[in-house]
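In the lab's daily routine, each protein ends up as an entry in a very long ledger. A line of letters takes care of the sequence, but it says nothing directly about the fold. The fold becomes a row of whole numbers, each drawn from a learned catalogue of backbone shapes. The protein below has been through that process, and both of its lines are reproduced in full:
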Amino acid sequence: MVQEICRDIKQLDYAKRHLQTTLTALKRLHMLVNAVDQLELMSSQRNYLAAASLLEAIFADFRSVGPMDLLEENFASEEERKAVFANLSAACAVVDALGKATREKLIHLFCDEQLMSYERQYGEGGECAGLQQAEARYTWFYNLLAAIGDRLNAVFPKHWRIARRVCIHFCERTRTHLLVQIGAHTPDEMDVTLLLKSLQRTLMFEHDAAQKFEE
């Protein structure tokens, strides 16, 4: 008897959470649709201050996501995850309609968010910043891509090629990191063998990335 009551309560609780998640997603989608209409109106009236506030609300959805490799930890259920992904996908459609400049800003923001952990570990002063960590750098990126690839496809429009953009940002940061490491040593201090190994591994990654993300 007690077990049956507990089971019924559990089912009701699950149904309540599912309903709340669905209502939240619908509410956000409705807000995004209204935001597009308001943005068009604000643009026609040259009310750019109000338009900027609306854009900030859309971008806030993506800031709240955080690193996508940790995303599963934030959801109580699969239904909630799907609802959030649907909401983010709708936000991308809104951003797409606003033009290239807005889209580029969002992509840049998103890529920076995904590489925060990489910057902490491998950036200047990080515990893995040295040239001897070249192999670990690229392994880190491959692991990231494996973890978030499906989620990127579920959220972002295909023509954004978001995985490629994350890779480009990763390469730009890696270049900066390695140049700092090389510049920190005089020619006499430099370990030539280590430098050549790092360069060879970097060229291998460059070749692999070019094949994976070729136009």
Observations:
- Helices lie at 2-44, 48-63, 78-97, 100-114, 116-122, 134-155, 162-183, 192-212.
- Residues 122 and 128 are 5 Å apart (CA to CA).
